[in-house]
Description:
One of its GO terms (molecular function) is peptidoglycan glycosyltransferase activity. It is a multi-pass membrane protein. Keywords: Cell cycle, Cell division, Cell shape, Glycosyltransferase, Membrane, Peptidoglycan synthesis, Transferase, Transmembrane, Transmembrane helix. The chain has helices at about 10-20, 20-50, 60-80, 85-110, 130-145, 155-170, 175-190, 195-215, 220-230, 235-250, 270-280, 280-305, 310-335, 350-365, 380-385, and strands at about 110, 115-120, 125. It has one domain. Residues about 375-385 have low confidence and may be disordered. It is mostly helical. The chain contains 15 helices and three strands. It is globular and about 60 Å long. About 45% of the residues are buried. Helix 11 crosses helix 12.
Amino acid sequence: MRMPGRADRTVFGRWFWTVDRPLFILFLILISLGLIAVAAASPAASQRLSGANFKLPELFFLKRQFMWVAIGLPVLIGVSLLPKDLVRRLAVLGTGLGLLLLASLPVIGAEINGAIRWIQFGGFQLQPSEFLKPAFVVTTAWILSLRFDDEQLPVFSLAGSLLAVTAGLLVIQPDYGQTLLIGAVWAGQALLAGLSLAWVAALGVAAIAVLGAGYVFSPHISGRIDRFLTGEGDTYQADRALDALRSGGLFGTGPGGGEAKYSLPEPHTDYIFAVIGEEFGILACIAVAGIFLAMVIRVLSQLIEEEDPFVTLAASGLAAQIALQAFVNMGVATSLLPSKGMTLPFISHGGSSFIALCLTAGMLLALTRRNRFLKASPFGAKLQAAE
């Protein structure tokens, strides 16, 4: 396909010359690495989930991942084409719909492993909280950005109320991990918007209180924390993940050569980082972590000269959401954090999670689009604002 010229005013032409191509390439690299990682994990996951009366093909989950990529990539690119105002409106609408679906889960949701987080239809499962996260981050950014136009507006109260409602609905599921994740992102955005350190400290205390409530009222949560702190009890998941990482060494056993992965719980989702370590080595794990770090650095570098507070708050929040989720997944696989079912962004096999992350990446690319050739002139600034 011929590269569009700089004078090309078609939708694709404007997108090509305004999108942050290094950031776009980083997302494509993560998705490509995900296909390789799922290919390595698929035989173990298929064997583990096969039943007495049925046997899943070895590459069952790889084929499904190709399907999710075929759906997710158009979502990513399509959302990245949107103007910033439309991204904001989409996020506000998505937040409202997401909260409605979360509130409906006790009635229409399906219980899996003691939690009601999914809506089942046909052979698929929809997890509303995954789609709510990016919408919530952008909506919060919009509310907080209003104070830069009028400091008298009670934006922190409004954004805090939205956080409280969202956190309450997530705790009911229960899903303490997602609650702490969105709370951490919200705190970062509020701090950037000018919230005092005293209030940020109060939020930290509230987060500890939420975790404490989970410890007291949820045997599942307390068991995970106790195993992490004492090393006693059922530490099967953490032990198997460490076994996989140790067996891979620096350079790994080679594609398809891993054996420890067959003992891993959820090798294609929650513990795919351990599969990467076993088959491709610790150096590959460091490279994956480095790509997430490069993504964050790229976004922050793009925001240095950004004058729109909404864009700054939204883009930094979305980048933080992806990075924190990756940190939690890698921390669990390496036993640096208590066990928590959270996927590795763009790499783990998944439906709702993967599509929602493509939506997140698309929003991030849309918000960081700019005309790098014309922005120095007044005309260029007007053109950029129009786009």
